[in-house]
Amino acid sequence: MEKTGDLVSHFVRATEEAAIAAAKWRGRGDGKLADGAAVEAMRAVFDNVPFDGRVAIGEGERDDAPMLWIGEPLGSMQGVEGALQIDIAVDPLECTNHVAKDLPNAIAVLAAAPRGTLLHAPDCYMDKLAGPAEVSGEISLEADVAYNVEAAAAALDKNVNELRVVVMDRDRHRELIKTLRDLDVSVPLIGDGDVSAALDAATPHSDVDLLMGIGAAPEGVITATALRGLGAHFEGRLVTTNEDHERRAREMLGDDVDKLWGRDDLCASSDALFVASGVCSGYLPGVEDLGSKVAVHSEVIDVASGTRQFISAEYLK
Question: Which of 60, 104, 124, 249 could be cross-linked to 64 through a Cys-Cys bond (beta carbons 3.0 to 4.6 Å apart)?
């Protein structure tokens, strides 16, 4: 019986090609052009993948091209009886602003799982809470910040003032940052890249303990898939910021729009993959210019086996 992992080489190629395309725009000040290049490179790979795919959650909808729009059919076997049906959560270029400025942690990234097992929702925001396996069952978005800080410190056998909680540097997090610092918690701020930050938080013995705050929903689903494979903690709750987002969310999810989504709700199958390729060096090495070739470095997390594999490849220019 076919499974998601049978297509892993295709998914790696999709993120590799997106990373290579985006890397050509590093430091050139235009994140939108970098993003568009990544989208088109990834779509070109997907056009030839032997599956019946669908974008379950991504950035933008059909009228917002060149994004890989929510609900977009993918693959070369659309409508073919017996074809492997796969949903994709995708960000062809996570950290577009970082590529524009050549800052760390820009990646091309996706999650893949059987049809109907990744959250299918509109492009909106998500309040997120991520951390290592030790905090599972101890912290929750249902609790306040102070409670989660105390619970995480106890679970990790640390003092509160030893905790490091990553938060995106946004005006919407002003109160969260103040609360954490009033609790004597160290709060490293990031411009973008909460997928990378959540992976850091989920990894034992890293220099980050938790990720808190609101980021994009597609990255939340992608992160949940990765953290399921790592046995780590993730929760999310959708956040809508205008009437149109609210309407579309309720059309797709009904009353579940207000639901607290656990890691295994967002990615409801163990037959799932997380795949990322580095654009700008950080959590993964960025694309390297080797003269006549380029090198690209990727990570694959196989949820079923819990394995985490790092891969490097070289392509002729």
Answer: 60
**Torsion angle, CA of 60/63/68/73, rounded to 10 degrees?**
120
71 Ramachandran zone, left/alpha/beta (phi>0; psi -120 to 50)? left
Range 225-243 average pLDDT: 95
Q: Which residues pair with 273 in a beta bridge?
A: 112, 302
SS3 label, residue 43: helix
DSSP 122: -
Burial of residue 285, with CB atoms counted within 10 A of its CB: 0-12 exposed, 13-18 middle, 19 or more buried: middle
Asked whether residue 63 carries a pLDDT value surpassing 60, the answer given is: no
User: Rounded to a whole number, what is the largest CA-CA distance in the chain?
Assistant: 59
Find the angle CA(66)-CA(108)-CA(242) to the nearest 5 degrees.
55
pTM: 0.96
pLDDT in tens, 247-288: 888 888 988 999 999 999 999 999 999 999 999 999 999 999
Q: pLDDT for 181-231, tens place per residue?
A: 999 999 999 999 999 999 999 998 899 999 999 999 999 999 999 999 999
From CA 289, how far away is CA 228, in angstroms rounded?
34
Nearest CA to 58 among 22, 18, 88? 88
Q: ∠ CA(213), CA(91), CA(14), 5° rounding?
A: 150
Cβ proximity of 196 and 223 under 8 Å: no
Instruction: Please name the amino acid found at residue 281.
Output: S
φ, ψ for residue 288, nearest 5 deg: -110, 135
Q: Is the peptide bond before 132 cis (omega within 30 degrees of 0)?
A: no
Cα–Cα–Cα angle for 108, 311, 309, rounded to 5 degrees: 95
Distance CA 13, CA 7 (A): 10
- Which one-letter DSSP state was computed for residue 287? P
Neighbours of 289 (CB within 10 A): 11
